[in-house]
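Quick log. Single chain, no ligands specified.
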Amino acid sequence: MRKVVQRFKEEKGETLAETMVSALIAGIGLLMLSSMLIAAQRMITNSNDAVKNFYQEMNQIENRTAASESKKVVIEDIEGTRAEINVTVYQSDGGEVAAYAK
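-> predicted structure:
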């Protein structure tokens, strides 16, 4: 504790080199922080765009405005019993989302 009190009582200050090094370290830290913030903002923007596109494609399918075509779904169990169901497949313009309706 005495050393701390003695340090504050001293009249000597920091040298120019120590001050410059501490300013350099603080500058590098701020540069790293700003680059992380920019990267985070870019990720948020990309994810918002992806979610928006997904919901637009789902709305196309749910409103039945997406491209559609008739298909058959074949269901077969291990005993060989087979059932065929006619369905309409709706696919979004982007082609990444699809659903079917009986």
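Residues 16-62 form the longest helix (47 residues).
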